[in-house]
Amino acid sequence: MSRYLDKSIIEINKMLKEKVIKPIDLVEEAFARIEENENLNAFITLNKEEAIETAKKLENLEVDNILFGIPIAIKDNILTKDLRTTCASHMLDNFIPIYDATVISKLKEKHMIIVGKTNMDEFAMGSTSKTSYFGAPHNPWNYNKISGGSSGGSAVCVSSRITPFALGSDTGGSIRQPASYCGVVGMKPTYGRVSRYGLVAFASSLDQIGPLTRNVYENAVLLNAIVGMDNNDLTSANKKEEDFTRKIGEDISGMKIAIPNYFMSDIVSDEIREKIRSIIDILKQSGCTVDYIDIKYLENAVLLYQIIAMGEASSNLARYDGIRYGHSKENPKDIDELYYGSREEGFGDEVKRRIMVGSYILSGDNAKIYYDKAMSIRSDIRTSFLEAFKKYDLIIGPTTTTTAYGLDVEDPNPLKSFMDDVLVIPVNMAGLPGLNIPIGFSKDNLPIGMHIIGNDFDEATIYKLASYIEKKLNLDLTPKGCDKSV
Amino acid sequence: MSNYIPTIGIEIHVELKTNTKIFSDSINGYGMGANTLVNEIDLGYPGTLPLINKEVINIAIKACKVLNCKIRKEMHFDRKNYFYPDNPKNYQITQARTPIGYDGYVQINVDGVDKKIEIEEMHIEEDTCKSAHRKNVTLLDFNRAGVPLIEIVTKPCISSAKEAMLYIEKLKETLLYADISDCKMEEGSLRCDCNVSLRKNKEDKLGVKVEVKNIGSISNVGLSIEKEIARQSILYDKGEIFKEQTRRFDSTINDTVLMRIKETGNDYRYFPEPDIPYIHLTDQMINDALKNIPILPDERRKIYQKKNMSNINIEKIIANRSLSDYLNDMLDTDIDFQVASNLLLGDISSYLNKNNKNIFETKLTKEKFIDLVSKTKSRILTSKNIKDILNSVLESDNSIDEIISSNNISNITDDNELKDIISKVLVENENSVNDYINGHDRAFKYLMGQVMKMSKGKADPLIASNLLKEFLIKK
Fold first, then answer.
1. What gap in Å lies between CA A204 and CA B274, rounded to an integer?
2. Which of A237, A188, A184, A228 has the alpha carbon at shortest distance from A210?
3. Is A368 in the B-facing interface, judged by CB distances under 8 Å?
4. Which domains does chain B have, with CATH numbers?
5. CA dist B233 to B27, B163, B238, Å?
6. Theoretical Cys-Cys bridge with A399: which of A180, A469, B14, B374, CB 3.0 to 4.6 Å?
7. Smallest CA–CA separation between B24 and chain A, in Å?
8. CA-based Rg of chain A, rounded to a whole angstrom?
9. Measured over all CA atoms, what is the biggest interatomic distance in chain B, rounded to whole angstroms?
């Protein structure tokens, strides 16, 4: 097997342009890699025939952009026309979308080639990808560890070098946290930056699609391709077109960086805090100022998230009723049995739990007591972040409190899994952009990630710092066992 | 009569006359093949998000204005969560917390007394799909899913079936004239639910509320309220206790039937719709929406009264929007509006109904109509003439004069000429003259017929009949 996909995207693009290789070579290689890594369970559905056909068609076209002919994997909650989209749920395990999500149309315009749909937590509800109806994916760095979630499959796919690119979605850390556990770059853009049209809604006011990639530059390149105001999504923002790679390579001296005390408190493992401190040292040596600051309500973010996300989810998931699409109970005796039966059989435990809690939260006066109150504190969190950004360019911290833990860890307390996302959730609350950049490894050789948070719509500055750190550290981020040279 | 005081509140759903649906660009149409006007948004497909049809906001602003509502400039949509097969997302996008309109009224006239029916609030929402029950299955037609609605809710301030009917008539007329809805109750574009409760004294708190749903016509609104008042009175008289409930009007038995008892208040788990940003209505948007509101019925009534049109004609003209619009084109002329309205409501209406046409689809230009009215008033044209030439008037490009000459119309309006004819008729029909003198009024008609016959239809009937009367009195 050729190993073209280990090369940088710029090199691959050059080879395509010079006709040294054809898109079909990349597609065949991607599927060979999928086969090689089958045990990681990164994919739910493969798109082999269609991908090969597309690749062949591309042979007659001019290589007109850097993403031309490049294989990409898509989280299975983003709708792909004629390609099964399950949300890792029995409810949708036979669901074939009739339209493409806006991001998919954009990727197709760039002539990217979709190789398959990646594994995830059911309806993106979880932080381990273990709630998937199709079984959990495995961490390429250690088969017995979780990949994180909910975009676990996408993180595994990129980490194991199956494809250079994957899309995920992030409602409460679901891109950044698995990116951290798997040692890849993952960006949750500013809320409104990327159209949500065709993303199966979990919590509408928080959901955002974003790129997972091997390095910072490629992340910015993929973000370039998927952003933009969409008339089909009223919450998408009308922003001027910009090149997110434009600040990559700029000098970082003089940058003002803040680190919230809460992010470095004892909720984070010593090993990770140590690693973050070493990065702070590097930044200071490079001419940045790094101040410890307080940001209000950070410690409440998880609680607010539970209220807002579950409340919205209970409503968003009401449409799965067995009538128009999705799993439908056989021979129900009446409409109630159709509802109860289809949802009882179609949804897994975590989804049901969240629907129940969410329904309770919105019930009667609770909507005002919980949901409205949470929304109000949420806007306070945003305000306190924006306050900090008046003084600082970026805010940093660890992405996760620990490294990836064992797949066999079963916590009897379902609320505890939310704590995996305690450091990333505040960013969704504030609607801000946040990125995970790998900064090293733990003693047991598991990736450690740093979280870089930017001001509203200032992804470019995040990439600037991230690329600097990436270059400075020059880590080998290819998991052992995947590095088979050409 | 009942010994109780009824309190009635009315909720009306009106489908808005827009080109497309409220949250998708599917066509807003009626009477098309089932499920032909649908897309993934209307079906509540995973991943879909609502768009917002600006036309809906504009029409709703207009509705606020014509129903005298205050307009809420900062508003948002909410989700009303409930499971029902006709509700594709299992939540309906509506406005629970910030209805666009509030504190409005509709003025009615009850037996000569003006009364304001107060409107509590008016909000925008999406229609559900239509279900059809066939034996064991329910069929769903999503053409209606996402059709824009406004719901208009009165305060519990209506005190009789008559007031209720007058309110709906007035509301319907206003919305129709303001181009907000076609208000066809038979097609469901105006739907009415009534809340009826009784109490013994004005000081008592309101009695148990009964909601009557799905009433298909204004007269049935009146009937269902009367039936409810009677039914509840008997229950109270007997001392029976009943629960808050929802009933429907069954037009086959002309009575209300129980649908369901309301055990507890419905829990719709309302919360602000996160997929639609909050909307701020600027003064500019409001002013733009309020441009070009056609003249409303009450204004038209005043104008027609000034033009000395009879009240009967005024109401008949107003009941026919296109005739009224046609007539309003004549406001800058000095034609006789009573004569004009008689013409429009008489032979012209019969023609239009028979040919299923609208007056604007005929060849009756403004010029021609003015001529027709003045020639009718000056009796150059008799009612018989008009019947004879109407088809040409409405269907040909010829002027009235051309039509008159090609039809050889020349009426005998000259008294002397008519007197000669009448004298001859009286001589030739002595028996009938005697019959008339002996009190047989029918004989007069016969004699008139003879006069017309002898004049070969050219006698002006009004003048001739007056002269005939004079002759007979002298006998």
1. 6
2. A188
3. no
4. 5-285 (no CATH), 297-406 (no CATH), 415-474 (1.10.10.410)
5. 47, 19, 8
6. A180
7. 9
8. 21
9. 93
